[in-house]
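Our platform keeps sequence and structure together, in a single record for each protein. Such a record has a labelled line for the sequence and another for the backbone structure tokens. Nothing more is needed to write down the fold, since each code stands for a local backbone conformation. For reference, a complete record is included directly beneath this paragraph:
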Amino acid sequence: MRLGALVALLWLLTASGAPPAVAATSPAWGVVDSTCAPDRLARRVPGVDVAVVEAHWDRLEPVAGVVDTAYAAGLRDTVTRCLDAGVRVVLGSGLQYPPAWVRALPGAALRDQARRSPTNGAVDTVFSGAVAVAGDAYLRRLMTVVPAARLVGVRVGTSTAGELGYPGPEASGAAFDSWWAFGDAPQRGVGLAPGQSVSPLPGWVPGQPTWQGRAVSVEAARAWFRWYSGAVVRAVADRAAALRAAGYRGPVHVPAAGRGVLPADLEAAVQVRLATAVRDGALRRGLDYVGGFPALASAVPGAVVDITGIDDATAVRARGLNPPADRCTSGDAAALLRGSAALDTWPNQRVTAAAAHRAGLALVGENPGPPAPQTGGTDRSDSERDQLRRAPGYARACGLAAFLFAFEDDLYTTRSGLTPGDYAAVVGG
């Protein structure tokens, strides 16, 4: 096991006393978007002792370099209440909520190949040096606000959802259309973030057969995509380094949506110089989990992959096949490397878990939440009640160290019809 995976598992194992063989099949239990409210802590389900608490950059630092002391005190109190109640806390870094002043920084605007900027407020968290400097300074402040030494994880992503990757099709209104590496920083090196590099084919747009009067080779297209997808991993590594510099020593959780581009699909795409799209827009999002997770493991010791869609719509579809293809198996990592034709029938969770296991990365995961696009679910997802019933079994089969139910509000309010007792039945089953 790689050091990063071992470190990530220790906080679970030391608290439970369970040996590693048990941890692979018996995940820790938690909730997403926890308020750590006293009344909820009083009704906490025994055994559900991990909480994801989300920070917000725009609330902590609404003015550059100025901390909102009231928000900081409230966040500290929230985290401390959970910790003092015996609940382990994973802190969402909140980098996906940049303040208005960050959006106004030079070079902060993302640009696609048509020079469009996102319509959803996304900034260039990957290539912009100004955004990187501001983000690192924010993380250093954040680690002074919360009891960082007591945290068992900090989430770091690059997208507006707080996940790994570039914005998806929702950012430009054109399905699977935008490649987000056409600002001055990635193309000309102007204001480029430390640790990043300029495009290996400046000015080239995927799909174009030529560059500077010469034919674009398959290898050149492959190298361009490696640069593009590798940049999001480097951005996460740089934010993780800022956390380490601030004194945080625990695991860094990297939320991962979808399944990434499959090796066979990536090869087919480079053969046509990337003039194609793949499921979920993974190509343009820069999501290459098979190729990128080993780099993540090397660059971010203590990295943990957080699968954000356990029992999503792809699992529902795979479950309906004959035979079903929804559950992880011990041979999945080998099948992933072989490029088995069966991979296309696998759900997102199975592909992502296989890629993480192959890279020696620890895993946690959460269900997508209510079947609505704004939560991560779709109209083809299981109901939230069925997610709570099925997702823990998937978590066990895929070797997750923790299952985090999304969302806490759906257990303690009437909006879903679920109650803490429903979760208790899962934990005790």
